[in-house]
User: Fold these one by one.
Assistant:
Number 1:
Amino acid sequence: MTSPLQQKLKITGPTVITANRLTDGVVVWLKADGGWSAGLADAAVVNTSDDALKLLGVANADENRAVGAYPARVEIAADGTPRPVNLRERIRVGGPTIALPGAA
Amino acid sequence: MYVYDEFDRTFLQERVDEFRDQVRRRLSGELNEEEFKPLRLMNGVYLQLHAYMLRIAIPYGTLSSDQLRALAHVARRYDRGYGHFTTRQNIQFNWIKLEELPDAMADLARAGMHGLQTSGNCIRNTTTDQWAAATPEEIEDPRLYAEIIRQWSTLHPEFTYLPRKFKIAITAAKHDRAAIRVHDIGLRLHRRDGETGFEVIVGGGLGRTPFIGKTIREFLPRHDLLSYLEAVLRTYNANGRRDNIYKARIKIQVHEIGTEEFTRRVEEEWAQIKDGALALDDAAIDAIRAHFKEPDFATLVDDPPELEAAKADPAFARWHANAVAPHRKPGHAIVTLSLKPVGGPPGDATAEQMDAVADLADQYAYGEIRVAHEQNLTLPHVAQKDLPALWRALDVQGLATPNIGLISDIIACPGLDYCSLANARSIPLAQDLTKRFADNDRIADIGRVHLNISGCINACGHHHVGHIGILGVEKQDQEFYQITLGGKANHKARLGELLGPAVPESDVVDVVERILDAYVELRTDPKETFIAAVQRLGIEPFKERAYAAR
Amino acid sequence: MPLVKNGKPVADPFVAVADDAPLPDAPALVSADRLLKEGAALFAHAYPVGVIWPNSKDVLQLEPFLARLAVVALVFPKFRDGRAYTQARLLRERLRYTGELRATGNVLRDQFLLMVRCGFDALDVAKDADAAAVEKELHTYSVFYQPTGDGRPVPLRARLAARNV
Ligand code: HEM
Ligand code: SF4
């Protein structure tokens, strides 16, 4: 496998690194201190490809805590917090778009 | 029902212990993710968008009431109170934690269940007709052979790391409810000169390169089943492509080297092993048969007065005409339970529903339940006189929607709401469609239509073989859907034809409605089904109408 | 990498030899190409000779040499690439090869038992920790569903027949 650090990565705007927590699969985002949070608001946001690659390297080296890390584009809301921009990431943040059976 | 013996129980316990140790090693970091992934997949554990997903095998779609209760227990204890029945006669739980998986597996093993071979590049759970051993049409119970294949393929040391996954389906009825022509191997049980054997079909499949399987042998004597399968698998394992994951299925190998050459290689290999350790004999097959306990059927007559009287209620009469099929034993019937309520996610059942169905199976159906590839449940053996009471109980549980085989009996994959590979959502679309087609008179008038939805080209929702197929695609972060017409999964299997450009999510329901309106206008008479009309007219007239308003 | 033979760690006397190097004064493993090119001449060597056989080559080509080969080493470039399982069974069950059958490459503990069932008796284990677990791994299961050439006591037919009693 090519090391993620050698992979080409082009980002076009504010970006976060996201993955799933190893123990329970919960969606997590990489924080600036190298830890993981289950809240997108805590995510480290980067704006250049180099920074994104560096952050992805940190994430991939930590696969005993979170797996399947990848960069996800975000937009920055008026209050300065990142928000998901596409449907997939919105669903990862907010859960399925349907009422869950048995949840009544 | 096949009854597990000491051997199977020992095996399952050892499997649970092995997986517990593998999870422990992964959590401690001894195993890295790349090493662990195939191991968890081999136990049915995927990582989805929000959590791990556990897929549990329901061999040949047959469940005992206790097994269904065990599934309800797993839904409650380890998940969020529901499960999703799949087109491969399995069940999936969407919210499982890796840490708790070994315990969930141990609970399942106590009921003789597991996630073995529901994923990974191995021989998957063999599927068959959900009406096996109940329908009058069949030659022999196909589950005997599905069970023989289960035993042979379980943790097969040579075939656990194949180029790609491998799916086998069997049918013994003329009316193919197992979609055998779109499997890696399809087996059709038939008789020749008084002998029972199989037509062997290889290289079918859906996904991004759909193929209808090719017959490589018209008649394989049943005693040769395993040696022949081993020869096919060996030919595939040795020379199937491994350079490109999208070209690794056996269908590509068959396509690239040609059916004739593929057949020649299989036959050559088979000649070497045919009389070896895998040769079956009547005693071996009868021993398996002895493990399928035939229900102690009561002696009854068809059309009992209780049933006839109940038909005075039009709601019952409608359900009876839709969801009940003839049984091989007089006075009995096969009942299909719709998991497609209006506005519900297709194929989902809550823990309460599972428990209720288990109780109803005990009360009315000799404790046996089947999972149909259309993502419904079946009670294969019900006394006709009990149908009115069963119907009332099912109705309370929301399991008596009279839409079996009709437009709202939609097959849908989980799509983007759960699946990490998805382009678009499937479930909300299915829900909107069922709401649009909620009028029972209208859907009965439209008649039999199979509408299948997949959220991406992997085709878990069998869209290629839906009379109407819907495939989710993505265009600049927007959900779009391609529509195909004319697909069929039966013995005359065909792939659907693309109607035209993909349509945005907001238009799909309208487009489907216009297609069906066109059919109602164009059909020669109400007896001409939708699929027959599409075959007679081609897709043009439907295309015109579908895009007319745009 | 530690070599485990018949379940026990052993020293590996064989050295892999480059195609253009002369055979050393020691047991040697040569490439498939060299074996096919030099053929019988290799066996004039005073020490045992084995071959490293890639998983893309038909093992039936080995037939003329099997009686004299001390080792056939089959390769798992990735543990997920399972071609060598088929090669192993063909060597043992079809060609009746009885010498050392060695698994090399990405040989990990979770596949040990599958390998042994297909006829491997020597495992060139990729991780030291895994070598210590061989004994445990080989006893993960006590029952087996399908017959292979490993002669384990519960082949499918016997099991099916036993159920009749
Ligand atoms: C209740 C009354 C039913 C009737 C009258 C009926 C009728 C038919 C007919 C005539 C075909 C052949 C179509 C053709 O060759 O073009 C067919 C196909 C099929 N049916 Fe049914 N069926 C019924 C119920 C069911 C049920 C309950 C299931 C499954 C739970 C089912 C599953 C299938 C499948 C898988 C096919 C093949 C695929 C296809 O043609 O799309 N059917 N059905
Ligand atoms: S078809 Fe695609 S979206 Fe649907 S379940 Fe399969 S992989 Fe996921």
Number 2:
Amino acid sequence: MNSSEPLRHLDSPHEDVWIKSTCYMCWNTCGIMVNRVNGVAVKIEGNPECPQNHGKTCAKGNSGHISLYDPHRVLAPLRRTNPTKGFDVDPMWQPISWDEALALLETKLKKIRADDPRKLVLASFDTRAQSGIFWMAWASAFGTPNQWGGAANYFCGNGFHPVTYLTHGTWFGEPDLRRCQYLILFGTQNGSVVNHLPMDLAAKMADAQMAGMKLVVVDPVGIHAGSTAHEWIPIRPGTDSALALAMIDVLLNEDGIYDREFLRSFTNGPYLVRGDGRYLRDPASNKPLVWDPEAGRTIPFDHPEASRMALEGTFAINGETSPTAFTLFKQHVRKFTPERASEATTIPADTIRRLAREFGAAARIGSKVTIDGEELPLRPAAANWYRGAIAHKHAMLNGLAIQFLNVIVGAIDVPGGHLGSNPLSETPPLRWAPIASADGLLIPQGFARRRKPPYPATKVKAPETLDLIDLAPVAPYGTTFFTEALLHPEKFKLPYSPEMLILSRCNPLMTCANPEVMAEAIKKFPFIVAFACEMTETAQFADLLLPDAHYLERLDVFPNEPTEFMAAGEGEWYWMIRQPVVSPLGQARPWVEVLYELADRLGFLGHAYQLLNGVLDLKQPFAYSATAKYSWEELADRWAKSWFGPDRGLAWFKENGFIVSGRKSVREAYPRIFLKPRIPIYLEYFLEAGREVERTTRELGIDWDTSDYQALVEWKPCPAYDSARPGYDLFVVNFKLPFHALSYTSRNAFLAGLSEQNTYAYSIVLNADTARQKGIRNGDRIRLESPEGYAVEGHALLSECVHREVAAVAGCFGRKSPGLARSYRRGVHFNTLVPHSFERIDALSAALDSCVKVKVTRLKE
Amino acid sequence: MENPFSAESAVRVNRDLMSVQVLYFGLIRNLVGAAEEALSLPAGATVRQLFDLLADKHGAPFRDALFTAEGTLLANAIVLLDGKNILYANGLDTEIPPDSSAHILLTMTAIGGG
Ligand code: SF4
């Protein structure tokens, strides 16, 4: 295209349309309207009708078309001719045609599939919507279970999703900002255009604060969320759960503020526990027993008279004394006194007591509210958490400890409290409801279990997949183990070695840990195929580089999965579409469509269709025929019609952008009191799972830490706390900016421009007092170095908004690919400082510990 | 005593057993090493009984690939009975109608983050 053409068209437009679609500039799914003038996307705004974001978009969303027309986009298939790989090594690309590229892939894939399909690995963070579901079906039909996230799932939700699964029966959760009066955020910035449903929660947070909700932000960095809070509590990194447990201690043991009825009816608190930590069970039915105080005897937890079961107490039964699980929990938290927690967190004990009391009082235990004629408990207090609190060695225990604050005051899935993202649906097209396990605990069902729930534990066995998930029975995914298995294959004794990596929409060399280590891991693949829009660091290591379609060029029905991207609590059920606004530029093609062409060539297309019929629950006459071949649009059309009826096909969705399939009932919005399955506050099943891991790894000769498989939650220090190397006296932390997500946005011209003007984006933020003591002034060039010898450099920015023991680095900058001119070496790359080692991975959740101590040095300019 | 070779008895035997066609899709095919197989089950059998039979036949790896340690279906294991997902019927206790076709699908679970 002649570069002057778009402007000429703008002068005299003969096409000027607005197209409804879904944003994909971050992990979320805001409804957008894209203005196309004479075939050129010129502007993006929020779709005012869309219930997801009510017309609001962030700076990232507004600048999607700038990435689309990035002059450095990869627009033709390229083949590497230089076998040497490295960050500053020229791959010596040679253009090849799509036909040649597909023929090459067909030959290689045919050979791998005949030999051992597990040797193929797919890596992508593109796990939602049509593309996400279809590529996973493709991989399953091919026969490989090897999937590598290779992105933020290194340390992002590892200590969050398993916890929401255990306590809500769904993948995500959020505070009920419509009714919450007191919110504590631990290491997350809800309301500051990051994390989950950013635009929806930003609006709701503003409304809630205006309506009087008190917001407390617990975070080493107080730059965004902290600065808008009523109170910012600077905390030493990695100690959030010490604070949470101390608050629980105050509520349970000092003030006696807890929701006895909730704990009795909806948790396993009343279950009796034997001396070995296991439940006391009924010999006949094997069901956990509870104590009936009126009859003075044990009864199974689901006995008709179990409603009067004892929550607390220790009972003499058959010569043994058995406390209830809640009694053990309450005793256990005694060791987390505010004084002890103060030493760990640096927060004064008085402040901890005050926060606990404020939280307990705000929960208004015993209060009720009537909504649509249903009387429900009202608990207008919630704690929420995310990456800051859980990107640590003990991620899962940290997340559980924080969520148990909500549990003890009964603020789970009731008005005002912490809500799961739609654990129950009674509205077509899909219905699901959690069920109870044999032990009476919550098991998610239907759409809510499209991911791997932590309970019941999966079978522990010798690992078959590179993510070693067979050794992690309660983890949501094993992304970090994958890298360890690549780096140290001899340790894990997999029966095969990977042959090929197909990668799209993820950049593990930048978003995981130290890039040199990640590069070593990725170099273990003899052949790498990267689909890419931009020349990312990981794409630079590819043997075959294929131009991927931008999100404004591709079709994806239903990206807003209800267990993550549909607001929790009251509201509507709605299903969105992401549709092409323009045709793909150059030779770009949507990557999953290319995979399906290969499936046809390799003869397993019908098999993939059969899997999709099962996964999507497609009904006749719209289910896919195993002997047909459909276009991507036909596949979307049949799916839409199967779910929403023959007159709600793709054309309807393209026109309307989304469908509202119903308004949530009170049961769907606040399901807790309507559900029987219980929440575990005592993780008895961890004991057996840990024993199995210990036995299996011993048999396999693998050294594997099982010490976190404990029934009671605990705060444990990260390995960095043991480091007493002189001079390494600051923790380095990473914080999110509202106008960047992952590494993807850093080279977008608009957003890079914003970064240039933003004080924090490219700096290293130091506490002003600490910096002065070290002789560092604003603007000095400084170096942060970890004990492992990893180092980054940048300009110091002195601020009061950072904990005195912390150096803070924003976003994912400091790009290393020379093909990313604008962002190449601009800003500081936090992950460079993060070592990758087995000892730093949470054995429960596979999170990588990002707690790193650094030495700071002032450099000469 | 009843003559076991009588026509009447043969009809009853047939009525007491039913045939089920089992088709495998996705990763489970690696494990079973076949795309489909036919089985006989007592009339009125449930999906759980079908799985017991299959686990006896294909061994522990089959059970481990589809079930949690507690014996519930894994998130990535999908069972369709005549095209309908048993999750939306009675789960493993769903009764199998005579001459049914059961599809056992093992897919990757979606990963997440965010
Ligand atoms: S929050 Fe995410 S999905 Fe929403 S407009 Fe911003 S970048 Fe797009």
